[in-house]
Amino acid sequence: LAAGVACGRQGLKGSQANAGLAYDFSKRTYLFALFSRLDNGASARYTTAANYTPSRGADLTQWALGVRHAF
Predict the structure, then answer these.
(1) Each residue of 25-38: pLDDT tens digit?
(2) Measured between alpha carbons, how far is 71 from 56 in angstroms, rounded to an integer?
(3) Within a 10 A sphere around the Cβ of 37, how many other Cβ atoms?
(4) Which strands make up the sheet holding 29-40, listed edge to edge?
(5) Model confidence pLDDT, tens digit, residues 50-70
(6) pTM here?
C-alpha cells in the first residue's frame, strides 16, 4: 500500500440469484432453462465465468436453454 492510503471493504458486496426449470418429455429426454443474476457492489469484480474479469461494479446476467437425452 502507498503511504497514507487507507484500505477498506467499501463497495465489495455482491449478491447472486439463480433459477432453473426442467420439463420431462420422456423417461430419457428433458428440456431445461437456467437463469442467473450476479449484482456486484460499486468496486466488486465477482464473476461466475471462467477466464473473465468484469469491470468494477459490473453486473452479470446469464441464461441457458437446452435439451438432454440419455442413450
Answers:
(1) 999 999 999 999 99
(2) 44
(3) 15
(4) 14-24, 29-40, 60-69
(5) 888 899 999 999 999 999 999
(6) 0.74
